[in-house]
Amino acid sequence: MAKTFNGKRPANLRQTVKKLLAYFGRHRRLLILIGFLAAVSAMANLVGTYMIRPLVNQLVAGGGTESLIRNVLIAALIFGTGALSTLGYTQLMVRAAQQILCDIRQDLYTHLQKLSLGFFDAQRKGDLMSLFTNDVDTISDALNNSFAVIIQSFVQIVGTLAILFFLNWRLSLLVILGYLAMFLYIRYSTKQSKKYYDRHQAYLGELDGYIEEMAAGQKVVKVFNHEKENLEKFKEKNKALQKAGTTAQGYAATMIPAVVSISYINYAVIAVIGGVMVIMGLSDLGSLASYLVLVRQAALPINQFTQQGNFLLAALAGAERVFSVMDKEPEVDEGTIRLVNVKKNSDGSFTPCQERSKYWAWQDSADPSAPLIPLKGDVRFDHVTFGYQPGQKILDDISLYAKPGQKIAFVGSTGAGKTTVTNLINRFYDVSQGRITYDGIDVRNIRKDDLRQSLGIVLQDTHLFTGTIADNIRFGKLDATQEEIEKAARIANADSFIRRLPKGYDTMVTSDGANLSQGQRQLLAIARAAVADPPVLILDEATSSIDTRTEALIEKGMDQLMEGRTVFVIAHRLSTVRNANAIIVLEHGRIMERGDHDELLAQKGEYYQLYNGMFELS
């Protein structure tokens, strides 16, 4: 059953913040400049407001026009500097945010490439896509809206309090009480909304995954008339998302009105008391005018703090999920043996070479003096036991061999372990017990990239990429020439249908080959394996979606492709394995029979019954 990314509060909030700050550190100079400009903008606003005091006092005292104009120009210069600083930090913040997001996406994608297939088996595509869309978007919102504003708001709050105490320390005690009431409510509201923001992001990932699942399986949904049932399930998930979102936003939405209400009350009280103090001669009118404007403005940075708090809460929840995936242990590869091009000497020995040759050999990078082992394609299983989950055996004490150039076919019912055998050869998974050797080398000692380079595989479920027909075939060998691509297509018997397409080999493939039939897609997968020209070939029910007439046409090409190669075939039709050197009958993870077609028919065992339709093969 697929696991989902939970939406609980981060187990280590400090660690999440620390990792996010590490990305900030990559662009520290730009962020320091942004912080400086944000601080200048805040200070300009504070100093500009303070300039009300001398202006009012001069007017009350009947000061000259020259002095008034000078103070007005100074205030204008201060506010102009603040406006330019605001323009500067907002533009720079956009650039910094995009650079940081680019780094996060790149690191996440790079790490995903290093994870084992077991991780992808346990995750839904929608959950993984949600990391790159919803979660990264929430981080983007926080960066663009919060970083500079929080610095600016902090400077404004501290600076406002400093100026207020300078102007009138008695009245400032009342301001402190108002601030304290605001922060207590913000703390309570933030704690409540954080819990529901986490749930909201988790439900959003579930809903995205469900939508993607249903969109991909619409044909099945319509065949079984499950539209109504699926809609009910969608409504259930959508309702949970709505409830979490409403509750989170409900708590968050009360913060600003509460802060504004407290600030209004505070302002009214201070205005009355301040007026009394001016009448009593305890304060001048200019100080009170400047003071009241500052008190009125004091709610703005606090409101900004509360607004940015919402962005930060969602961003931390998203960042925690992104970092939890990036903390997953990558696929372990302790192999030291690599695949190298070699040239054959006159005495039959081999020497490594840089240029592309038709010979390959295994070389131990940990011991360059070790002799080269020619790549032949000798694959052997030695008492192999394996299970995808602990305690569940899929293969039980399997021993088999495939000599270079042999064609080995696996037949058996669903769940017998046929595909698992091929998954172990290319080290998608490692064996639990026993060992698999490749040209006498334990596959665990071969670097995974090099091992897989020597293998060609055609899966039953074909996956095509967005690009041209030629690009999809070239995926098997990225430096393949057009001539090699067309030769591979002819081997797979795909050349004729490709040339009938509107643009031939330049025809675009979209939506995983939706503009092609299933059989055509599989022919392209076979051509992709052919262009790779591997010494070992794995065909996992590769012709299951091809009609019998087309299958007969490509058999000659397949024979040409398989000539001189070790080939493992998982059979969907017994007719495709008649010419195999050895047919292995698997049942419940064990080898029941082995032999060629005639030998197994003579035994009149399970293969005989399968071949004569007494058992169903799937």
Brief descriptors of the model:
disordered N terminus, membrane, 19 helices, 13% strand, 618 residues, 4-stranded antiparallel β-sheet, transport, 6-stranded mixed β-sheet, ATP binding, alpha/beta, ABC-type oligopeptide transporter activity
Would you write up a description of this structure?
Helices cover 60% and strands 13% of the residues. The chain has 618 residues and is α/β, with parallel strands linked by helices. The strands form four sheets. It has a six-stranded mixed β-sheet with strand order 10-13-14-7-15-16, sandwiched between helices. Strands 2-1-3-4 form a four-stranded antiparallel β-sheet. Strands 6-5-8-9 form a four-stranded antiparallel β-sheet, covered by helices on one side. A hairpin with an 8-residue loop joins strand 3 and strand 4. The longest helix has 53 residues.
